[in-house]
Amino acid sequence: MDKQPRRLSLAQQVPNLMTLAASCAGLTSIRFAVEGRPDQAIALIILAAILDGLDGRVARMLRSESAIGAELDSLADFLNFGAATGILVYLTVFGSGHSLGWVAVLIYVICCVMRLARFNVDTKAPDPEAVPGWFTGVPSPAGAMLALMPIALDRTGISLPPILIAVWLVLVGWLLISRIRTPSLKLVRLRSDRMRFVVVGVIAVGAILFTWPWQALLALDLAYLLVVLWSLRRGMRHRRRTTEAE
Question: Domain total for the chain?
């Protein structure tokens, strides 16, 4: 007997609609990048990152998680944080015809694809070494924000030579596919009576991002780099203690 398809209410389709909206933001970001409008392009990538952070949580709240939703999320991440981000960096920083820049962008995008593929595999067959509440490697939205850092530097008056930007993109690609344990927001636990402060804080950060996008992005990138360095040091200390114990 054929299995009856699961029925979902219209409200339960909201997470998938959010994911599709993020995909539309990524595609429109590519359009703005081609038209030479990086401010609008990066704003849409930030919007896609916000939607990416919310759609899974909304799905869990509405109990509407599904296999197709997970696949849509992964495909949207590749589009937004791989292809759209890479094209924006290439056209804005390197300009068309810059072969070295294109190679660096290709490496970054391929690393993003590999990171998402590994995440999908780990979701279906969990990694026995995985630590709850921690990512293996830098997640793709954070990687995209790091990849956009040269544009933020340029917009705040600090221009880097193309060779350094190319090296930076390759480094970000390596962070995506590395085994470095980076913390997830799932680690954060707050009392319910303090959630109002979180809501105000999120609104404030969003307002700052859309008012001073380049300065805010640069500050967030530097803060996240400190988190990555802390995670790297933490992992090295853990491996050293494990080796000494053996």
Answer: 1
At position 191, the amino acid (one-letter code) is R
Q: Kindly report the CATH number assigned to the domain that includes residue 72.
A: 1.20.120.1760
Domain that holds residue 215: 12-182+192-245
Convert 13-42 to b/e letters by CB count within 10 Å (16 or more is b): ebbbebbeebbbbbebbbebbeeeebeebb
> What's the pTM?
0.83
In this structure, what are the phi and psi dihedrals at residue 183, rounded to the nearest 5 degrees? -70, 145
Closest among 81, 87, 52, 93 to 145, alpha carbons compared: 81
- Mean pLDDT, the chain cut into blocks of 10 residues (246 residues total): 55 78 93 91 88 77 73 88 94 85 95 88 66 81 93 89 95 92 70 69 77 85 91 78 64
Phi-psi category of residue 133: left, alpha or beta, with phi > 0 → left and psi -120 to 50 → alpha:
left
